[in-house]
Structures are given as C-alpha cells and as structure tokens.
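Request: Show me your protein:
***
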Amino acid sequence: MSPFLILGLLVLLLTLRVPVAFALGGMGAFLLAYFPLPLNAIPQRLFGAMDSFELLAVPMFLLMSNILLKAKVGKDLFAAVQSWIGHWPGGLGIATIFSCGLFSAVSGSSVATAATIGTVAIPEMTKRGYPKHFVYGLLAAGGTLGILIPPSIPLIIYGVITEVSITRLFLAGIGPGILLITVFMAYSILFAKFNSSYESLPKASWQERLRASKLAFPTILIAIIVIGSIYTGAATPSESAALGFIAALIVTFLMKRMNLTLLKEAVEDSAKTTIMIFAIIAGAKVFSYAITLYQIPQEISQLLVTHIQDSGLFILAVGVVLLFVGFFLESMSMLLIMVPVLFPAVMDKMIDPIWFGLFFVVLIETALITPPVGLNLFIIQAISGSKIQEVIKGAWPFMLIMLFSATLMWFWKDLVLFIPKMLL
C-alpha cells in the first residue's frame, strides 16, 4: 500500500470527524491486518504507549492546573501583576500576558492558562475600553504560552517520542517563552499607543501592591517548587509534577479556596483530559508501528533528504506543512502524527533535536489560534460568549508574531540552546 494512499485514508477519516484516537488506532490496526501481521501486536503497543515513567507527569500537571483553576488563583495573579504595571501604556494587556506567563509556569497547559486568565482579564479589559477583538486575540495567544513555557505537556510527550532529555527541553523553552512574552507585550503597548478608546489605570499604592502580591505569592511559590526541583536536579519532571500537585492541594486548602466538591471536579476534569491524551497516544503508537513496518517514515525521510539538501529549506518545508496541517488537527494530534514521520529526516540533516522540539512546539502553538480547529479560539469564545469571527479577528496579528518568532529561532539558534548548554 502506497504512503500517499495511507495518508489519504487517514485524512479522510479525520475529515469525516472520526475521533483522532480511533482514526489513528483503527488505521494502524487495518494496516497491520493488511500486512499481514498477528494482531496481538495491537494490545502490546497500546500497553507500551502508556508504560512510561515520564508520562506520569501528564496527569500530575493536569491535576495541579485544574486545582488552581477551580481555586481561581488566576484572579490573584492578575491582580498582583496589574497592581505593579497596570498604569503603564497598554498596562492591562501587559498584565494579561505576564499573568499568562506566570500561570503557564505552574500549569503546563494551554487550555488551563487561557481559561484561568481569560475569566479575569476579559471583563477587566473590556470595562477599560479595550476593543473586544484585541482582548480575545491577546488571551487566545497568551494561553498558548502554556505549552511552551516549562513545564510543558507537549514537550514531555515530544521527549518521550524522541527519547530526548525532558529537562533539557524544559530549559530550552525558557528563551523562546521570554521572547514571545516580550513581543506580545510590545504589541500591546503599540496597540494602546495608537488606540485612544482605552482608559489607563491609576497607579496603585505600595500598600495595594503588597496586599495583592501577598495573595499571589503562594501560586508563585508553587511555580518555584516545580521549576526549581527540575532545574536543580532534585527531582525528575514526573516527581516535580507530583510535588506541584501536593503543593497546589495544600496551598488552596490553606487559602480556603478548595473543598471536597471542587477537588472532585478537578479530579474528574483531569481524568477526562488524561484519558483523551493517552487514548490519542495509544492510537498514535499503533499507527506509528504500522507505518514504520510499511517504511513510510523512512521513505518520507529519504525523499526529504534527497530532494532538499539545504537544512534551511527543509525547516521551511516542515514549517509550511505544519501550518497547513494545523488548520485541521489540534496540537497534540499534530505532535503524535508528525514527529515520528519527520524525526528521522531531522537526524539525517543533523538538526539539533532539542532545537527542533522547540521549533515544532512554537508552530503547533500557532495551530492553537488558527481556524477552523484552533482550540484556544473556542476556549475564549466560550468564556466571552462572543462570535468566533471576532476572536479570529483579534488572533491573526499574534499568528504573525509567532511565525516571526519561529523564523528568529532559526537564525538565532542560541535563543533555544544557550540555557541548556550553560546549565547542563
């Protein structure tokens, strides 16, 4: 069976809205039966997909982020940042992005970041006269920081697939994360400069700043525990995720923001998301095994290596493909389908796998805010109750900013690699 026919059938299944996990797993099972091979390889691959110590970090980080989401700690973070910089030109936009960055450093989840900060920032910014489409686009883009700034669930899964150090990937995410936060903030300032409809906030007093910072400190402490334990080598990413979950539980109960009902809801939401992610991983594992037997990754890798000699053109081709695929697939599916296919060519081109992982994540970040299946667009639409067209209108400048950042990463590779080289 030809590679184009196999990929065409998969695209057809996804176009017919077959759930990604079933499309991947079913296609893999069909290919194994067609080969023909004993179908007992399927349960072995399904079990093997989840038999990974590193993947324990995924449900732990999801539990932590959902506990913080239910406890509404995003309000404290936003209020603290707003008290310090809200009076700047475009201050509320800057506070929103900075709050997204801080919450990303705790949750590792794009959806949790967009939902948590969005519920607080949307009414505050629109009340101050910021155009709605700008607010929605800013939050949709700010939410994407959750899968770039460590701890990042997609980086964990990329590390598992490619057997690359997750700690090094986390360290490499710091530079691009700071870059995107900085550029998003700069755009917010420029937007405010040329828009007279918004009202700036009065400068907060030192007492107000200290009071707001005191409320936000426990959440920042959780981020320090999680990130510090990884970077000092005191804990693996999975162990640090468990530490973060315990810290979030203790902090939210001490703050009287958590109870057994909310904890049950957080566990249920985390279980649903974990099952979805693991089901996709399991289906992708069966599909990946099948296409490997059909030599599809090797053929595509050889095709790219033979016809695209220059590594810059190769990365450009990968970028174009990922942008196109991002119109139809959400980020986790892109990661699990594309990485096994592209990674052999990446190694043949002698492209640094750590750098490629961050480049890949920045591009699937862009997919989170590209229609028609950009997940963050729908999250912000649901929170705001607006039309999806208004969210898309606000998001497109941030798509261009992300593409600019990905281009800068290619020309300035130390943006990604400097911190891992320095610390490890």
Q: What stands out?
A: Residues 3-423 form one domain. The chain has one domain: 3-423.
